[in-house]
Amino acid sequence: MLGQLNLKNIALIKELSIEFGEGLNVLTGETGAGKSIILDAINLILGGYATVDLIKAGEDSLTVEGLFFLSPEERVWINNLNPDLKMVDEEGALLIRREINRKGRNKCWVNQRLTNLSFLQDLGNFLVDLHGQHQHQSLLDPSKHIDLIDSLGGDKIGALRKELSINYRLWREKKKRLTQLIKAQGENKRRIDFLKFQLEEIDKASLTKEEDKILEEEEIVLRNAEKIIATMEKANFILYEGGAEHPSLRDSLTEIAKSFGEIASLDRSIGPMQETLKEIIYQLEDLVKEIESYKDKIELDPQRLKEVEERLNLLNSLKSKYGSTIEEVLQYREKIYQELVAMDYSEEEIESLSEELKALEAKVADVSYALSRERKEIAQNLEVLVVKELEDLNMKSCQFKVAIQHHQDEEGLKIDYEKYKVGPKGIDEMEFMISPNVGEELRPLAQIVSGGEVSRIMLALKSILSEVDQVPTLIFDEIDSGVGARLGEVIARKLQTISQRRQVICVTHLPQIASRAEKHFYVEKYVTGKQTEIRVEEMKGEERVKEIARMLDGNELNEITRQHARQMLER
Predict the structure, then answer these.
(1) What string of pLDDT tens digits covers the 571 residues of the chain?
(2) Beta strand pairing call for 128-131 and 473-477
(3) Residues 458 and 562 in one domain
């Protein structure tokens, strides 16, 4: 509820503070006393439109503050508006401050945190319904009508809404995923063919690591086989075979070793040299065997050379396409293989998602249809109740209807043999329609021009919806426009009933309403120096009796009107 309103430099108000209470609060005063300025100020802290004309003459800026006290449930809702900022503390106090300067600049604070006007409007939509000439009226917003109808349906509608919300969200998510997969499937067809070609080309080569290096070495040997064989034969001749004119190195070393053996007895140091020569001869014989063995393996094989060259050309071709080494080519092969596996999985996912979507579509359609049936019944009952309430409020010729529309859509869901557009709240779109006078067509509630008519229609709706509508504070302006004593009594009783569940602030000229208030404020203009200002005083005791008497009989105050005022207050 709105606990306190602080005003500074707005219109004729220099500085003013009003402490509202629970239940019914009324503002009374002479016509033109400035009651509308109080409502203009409240509208500002709700995010309403502001002009520099509201700034008091001679001042640079105006400031409006509203201190709200919220229930635990209301605190949770407001904190959920912005989870990153805990706007309301555990005590439930919420201070909204707005400042407007001559340059038209706005500054808004919520509990000392600077915020934007949009967030202030979101808060305002939850905190207050202001009915009258102002536009801050939740019941004039068609998007909220379906929620109000559903709130009248109790747990049954609540369960259906919850079930629909869950299934609708899943349906939208899976439908989006399926669309993406199908689109990707079309876009990837060429990609799949291309990757399969690459995979087949690499697999066909049957690559092994380091194969290219081994083949390059073999190619060099094959290309130079003739030279290698000739060199090996020459080495064998020099080292081992020899001839008559050119003995082999082995024969020469053997001869020297024999000679050393003949003189070894002459000097002890010759023996070790002879042994070394023998060791060299043994090593030489081992080397000759290796040369012979190597030479026997080398062949002049043009066919093998051709095969090696062709294989190397293939490997180099693959490396030019897929990587600088065979290892990189094999890594690339694994990469495209995994990509193809993922694409094959997408095919399976498409089939699986299609089946899931069919089941979800059937569920969403069934729940939407059930919701629509329930809403139609609730809407019909509400139409009867509203008309009855409006009759009590002297709008006897008024018609009220809840218009329910369904939009056919070829891309929608099949419900009751037709395809309809479905949203998170089902297939229904609702709007409250009204015809205040005989002969007038039904029009959207938002198009009602008369402030008095709007307020009375809202009062009728609020009387019915007050148990389920969660807006904590209701403000009514001009609700008693053109109203006599009998109808005033009816309006007063309805306001008092609503105020048992909600805080109500009402600008009124009717003593029937004012006498039922738990807090009564009197607004008046006064002159100080050469300036006109506005003050607001809470009426108590005899001052309140006097004000009720004035409202009963104008300025002709006498003991009869005072007695009548006392009786009204006591009643």
Answers:
(1) 999 999 999 999 999 999 999 999 999 988 888 888 899 899 999 888 888 889 998 899 999 999 999 888 888 877 777 666 566 767 788 999 999 998 878 899 988 888 888 888 888 888 888 765 545 466 778 888 898 899 888 889 999 999 999 999 999 999 888 888 887 776 677 788 888 899 999 999 999 988 889 898 888 888 888 898 888 889 888 888 876 677 888 888 888 888 888 888 888 888 899 899 999 989 998 998 998 888 888 888 888 889 888 999 999 999 999 998 999 999 999 999 988 877 766 677 788 888 999 999 999 999 999 999 999 999 999 999 989 888 888 888 889 999 999 999 888 888 878 898 999 999 999 999 988 888 888 988 877 756 667 767 777 887 887 766 678 898 888 677 766 777 788 888 888 988 998 899 999 989 999 999 999 999 999 888 788 899 999 999 999 999 999 888 776 678 888 888 899 888 7
(2) parallel
(3) no
Rounded CA separation 531/57 (Å): 10
Domain count, the chain: 3
Report the predicted TM-score, pTM, of the whole model to 2 decimal places.
0.61
Residues 249, 273 contacting (CB under 8 angstroms): no
Distance CA 258, CA 252 (A): 10
In a domain, 244, yes or no: yes
Same domain, 207 and 275: yes
Flag whether 341 is in a domain.
no
Q: Are residues 510 and 549 in the same domain?
A: no
Q: How far apart are CA 462 and CA 494, in angstroms?
A: 9
Distances (CA, A) of 334 to 80, 188, 193, 337: 48, 19, 16, 5
For residues 100 and 214, state if they share a domain.
no
Indicate if 16 and 45 belong to the same structural domain.
yes
The torsion angles phi and psi of 221, rounded to 5 degrees, stand at -65, -45
Answer yes or no: are the C-beta atoms of 125 and 472 closer than 8 Å. Answer: no
Same-domain pairing of 131 and 232: no
Task: Give the dihedral of Cα atoms 369, 370, 375, 378; nearest 10 deg.
Answer: 150
Taking the CB of residue 285, how many other CB atoms lie within 10 A of it?
A: 12
Q: Within a domain: residue 307?
A: yes
Both tokens of residue 35?
A: 């009651």
Cα–Cα distance, 383 to 352 (Å, whole number): 46
Q: Which domain holds residue 567?
A: 540-571
Whether residue 437 is contained in a domain is answered as no
Do 516 and 556 belong to one domain? no
3-state secondary structure of 433: strand
